[in-house]
Request: fold
Amino acid sequence: MIALEKRPQPSRTWAWASPLLAVALTMVLSGLMFAALGKNPVEVIRTIFFDPVFSEFAWYYRPQILIKGAPLVLIAVGLSFGFRAGVWNIGAEGQYIMGAICGAGVALALYPMEARWLIFPLMVIAGALGGWAWAMIPGLLRVRFGTNEILVSLMLVYVAEQLLAAMALGAMRNPDGMGFPGSRNLAQYTSSANLDLIEGSGLHWGVVAALIAVIFAYVVLSRHLFGFHVRLAGQAPRAARFAGVSPARMILMCMGLSGALAGAAGLFEVAGPAGQISIDFNVGYGFTAIIVAFLGRLNPLGILAAGALMALTYIGGGIAQSSLGLPSAAISLLQGMLLFTLLAVDVLTHYRLRFRKRSLA
Amino acid sequence: MNRRTLLATSAAILAFGAPAMAQDDPTKVGFVYVGPVGDGGWTYEHDQARQAVEEEFGDAVETVYVESVPEGPDAERVMTEMALNGADLIFTTSFGYMDPTMNVAAKFPDVKFEHATGYKTAENVSAYNARFYEGRAVQGHIAGHLTESNVIGYIGSFPIPEVVQGINAAYLHAKEVNPDVEFKIVWAYTWFDPAQEAEAANVLIEQGADVILQHTDSTAPQAAAEAAGNVYTFGQASDMAEYAPMPRVSSIIDNWAPYYIERVGAVMDGTWETSNVWHGIDEGMVGIGEITEAVPAEVKASAEDLRDRIADGSYHPFTGPINRQDGSEWLADGETADDETLLGMNFYVEGIEGDIPE
Reply:
């Protein structure tokens, strides 16, 4: 029979191997599901995981992976600090929306002035500040009144969504839009447009920011005192307090950092790929980023890989839908399986499998 | 070769390749849906029309669709995928797909696009919409007769012109047959969310509404009305006949099939041209679902008469005198509303209480 035996130390090998095993298991499990749906599982898996990168039209899909992955990585890197330190910001989606609203607000207020060197940087700052401020609400409430930041940050997502609808229908509505909801298109306004730096490459400022965030986070976590405190606060809260880490400060730093990055992600999205403030601007990046953060082991480099993988399933999922007639729910199931198998496989990090012969009683 | 020329070249290859293939290869038609095909409302009807296209043309046509596509960059990607994979015609079936459709259409000049419920067109982009307000007038007529509490509940989706038209049309025709009628409007800010729609319906029922009209697509309000008993509802977007004869007493059915078949046919024989159509009961794009026996016979007869008069053009649902909510005159006696005002309608008519949210 098989028994689980707790490891004295979490296995370093398995900490890295388990995401890979989880991906492999997901392919097998989802393959069974696709077969049950009457599709050829090999063909579906190939379409989802390989076609976006290697198929005939990969020159179009590859840049799309950057566009889809950048906000995920940017948000997930911010969240990973808090998640390591035991600060649970679940409301990145709301901070993402607020960043977009604040950044777009700057551009719309200055429209039609032409001064890219001034307007675009201002927008980025406003976006980050917007997200930061929205994250400060649950942060300060937690520090001051001991409220639960999970609930408060999550609830604020719905408030942000209502604000977004109000902006699309009211204050930010395009005056030339015949009364229809939605703001002016920021991607068509030279001073605010967040377009590809190299035409057709998908490489916009948000992708650059995501890469910088990954490097920055990697250096801070491995080399800087703040990074050490973050890890300490998560692994040994008591020890952290003895080491002079103020829990209140830690909460505010982590909430603020994740909020600012989520806000910046929202700004890059609204100024580029999405183009306008609309009622349905947000599509769940803030929530998917939570999966990406854990799939990437809360490690910046891991998050980069996980973000790319997640983006791949979206792009490949879309291809599978249109070319193989797969229902969209099947793609969501596949993405859910990814997290689910990872959590299951994680047992191996903390436990050792023992195969024993049944002893005679 | 940079990527831009590559894109242009590929588009050109597609463009030159398409006519040659037209002889033996089927015409490929793509559909982009905002909801799941099983929503029982908006997307369901678009998918029914897609199936009608397949039935009509058989092997000469191949259809593909992607469901639950968020409005924004994802929509743009899905449309590009379809165009790259050889689609000749793409139907994008939600208002929010307008800018993405325009962007993709600019990159693929030889692929035709049809965008539902928007207002932008281009050389290869047509717009189409249905005069839902015609159906709303018939609903309002029936609702005004049926209500005993004189309170009619209305579940709005988003405060956009299309929805405001519907509220005004329904109110005017309810008021016509029942001067004491009052409208209570709840904005759900969604096209499809069964939980939220059920909650909106329950709120309206608690406030005394005994007829509920909806501009959202699920059958949750019907279920809520059935649970409450003695509350009338109307099917929205699709017939929702499973709730007939009560609480669903009639419905507005979006019937896209005739238009889709016509446009696919036009692409096949090369006669497709840019157009911007707004079809109503007359052309069959707006259907009135069967009026059940829960409605008194004389009301049913007068409702059907109203429907027929709208269809043959002898009556326009917005015929003056009609004042705006603030009391100022909108339409003089006998004057009918022009399409431009209707398409940008952002005011209530006199008698409706409350404000359109901004």
In short: The domain at 38-326 of chain A is CATH 1.10.3470 (ABC transporter involved in vitamin B12 uptake, BtuC). Chain A is about 70% helix and 5% strand.
